[in-house]
Amino acid sequence: EWEQAWKNYKCKRDPEKDLDGKEDPELTSIGMPDTWGYARRMVARGTAQPPNLRFHAKDSQISEFISRTLMYEWDRGKAQRIQKKHFLQAVLFGWSVKAWHWAVDERIRTRRVDIANLQPGDLDDIINTYNLNILRDPRIDQTGILDRVLASLLARKGRGNLLPVRYLAKSYEGPKSDFLFIGDCFPQPNFTDLQSSAWFIVERRRRLPWLEALAEAYPQFKEPLQELIEKHPDGTEPPSFNSEHQNLRNRLQSVIDRRDETARSWEDEHAPEWTITEEHRPGDNPTLRYVGEDVYLGELPYPYELDGQIAFSELVLIDDLLSGIGDSTARVLRGLQLLHERQTNRRFDLIYNIVRPLLGTTNRELMENPKLIKRGAGFRLVFMRGPGDLWVQPEQAAIAAAAAGLQDESGIMRTWQMGAGESNMSMAANVDPQQARTATGARIMAYQQDVLTKDLNDAFAQTSLTSDAELMYLLNRSELTEELEFESSKYNRKYSTEEEAFRQKWVTIKPMHFQVDGEIVAEIGSTLADEDDTRVTKANNLFAMFGGNPTVNQEKLRDNVLVAYGEGRNLSQWVP
């Protein structure tokens, strides 16, 4: 099922075979973009905006601090791009998993300092850059050696009065997410959700810096990691096959002709990689177990304090009754797309052959000697002995079949729209009866589209976004040690003009703020596109009903209309 859904998404189709089982080059074999269009439009609508993550606690100020911090970390951690892949995988296959970890992104930066006006910390950067530890002696200042050393460095390395130095800068510290391909994930059979399962296993490719960081953080892993590197000094090939079946990643690549089994693209002497298998066990005493290729590395208590959870969130848009892996529209309608492709290809071949007219002849010489047809620039010259040697044979039945086939396209597309809830109509559209035969049918499909879109977005918020926000909050509670400072007005996704205290102000978030208990929620529908026709229509109706009514909050009514029209980020410009 996953292979077929993936092929449909990539517009790949199996070629037609002749009676001998070989590919028939005379028959058209093209894939239609039904699944591609449905998946891309659904992902674009569902992830058009970053989510609105809210934290509710008794202290309203701390609630606002944490809410905006979560959205700040979502943007700085670049989670939105991962979110689009996460959503797409769930739309195609029915299930997707995203991993979370605490990231500390540090890098070496270069700047120039004025040696005539050294600021606090400049001397330390000079010492670290040029390995001048002797200058740390406080007696150096009394001898004048420091000035001579700095002048010498400036003469050799500087530009004007500025001396270049390197320093370690922290670009981001906070929760970060990783996209996981479902072929690398192995859940407990018949599980209901990851956090309640007995275990969850995932395979990941790791490079040497990650192994070194693991050995430094957990010394008990140092010896087995050294054994792993000695056994496989040049890294290993990604797992392609096991004792039972081909790896899912390779199967999906092979069905779209993207895999060369003879290529060894995994070999890279500059960046060798090893397959590390992780077993995560949630519960009262969660644990994490590592296996590197065929070397058992060890087990340790879970590195993060996540209240018994493991650092993964899953997304299931359509629940299944049997297990935690859900259904998907792409899998359910794959047979309908095959029917669409088959009819389109048959109709194309029929019309292509009708365009080439069928010619009849009684002259056997014309049949047996194709050289009698001379091809020149823009014409074909045929030798005939008499005016009746060659004539056009009309094909009335074939022409009628082609004309009837052109009308059959709408029937299949209406069936696809009914199953997917996806159409070019909405509640605010001017219904064209020709699009669905009757205005009533178009209205029914538009209503169904709105219902299914709301259902999928509700499932998105409840199964994934809320879990994402909880894990981000718990990671901050477990790992945050330093204060954060950022400009808070950029992360006011609540779109309200009532909170002027937070507008255009920097706030300081302390680690103790995350020690407050509260409830994490993701606002349902906050990820939808601003220009959603349904929201615009409802906002206009509310404004028409309650505009000017003194018993109704007029500012809230105005904000509701502005947000629906995509002006949510510019509300401060509309304040009188």
Provide a descriptive summary of the structure in words.
The chain has 576 residues and is an alpha+beta fold. The protein is 40% helix and 18% strand. The protein has 19 helices and 16 strands. The chain has helices spanning 2-9, 34-46, 60-76, 79-93, 122-130, 140-143, 145-157, 208-217, 222-231, 248-255, 329-332, 334-355, 364-368, 396-407, 409-420, 433-436, 439-479, 533-546, 554-564; strands at 53-56, 96-114, 162-180, 185-187, 200-207, 273-281, 287-292, 295-301, 312-315, 359-361, 373-375, 380-382, 390-392, 484-487, 506-509, 519-522. Strands 4-5-6-7-8 form a 5-stranded antiparallel beta sheet. Strands 3-2-9 form a 3-stranded antiparallel beta sheet, sandwiched between helices. β11 and β12 (380-382) form a beta hairpin. α2 (34-46) crosses α4 (79-93) and α12 (334-355) packs antiparallel against α14 (396-407). The longest helix is centred in the C-terminal third of the chain and has 41 residues, at 439-479. The two termini are 57 Å apart. Residues 425-438 have low confidence and may be disordered.
Structure keywords:
576 residues; alpha+beta; five-stranded antiparallel sheet; three-stranded antiparallel sheet; 19 helices
| Low-confidence residue ranges | 425-438
Strand content: 15-25%
Q: Tally the helices: what do you get?
A: 19
Rounded average pLDDT? 82
Instruction: Please outline the major beta sheet.
Output: 5 strands, antiparallel
What is the radius of gyration computed over CA atoms, rounded to a whole number of angstroms?
33 Å
Strand order in space, largest sheet: 4-5-6-7-8
**Oligomer category:** single chain
Helix content: 40-55%
Instruction: Give the structural class.
Output: alpha+beta
Distance between the termini: 57 Å
Q: Any idea what the shape is?
A: extended
Strands, total number: 16
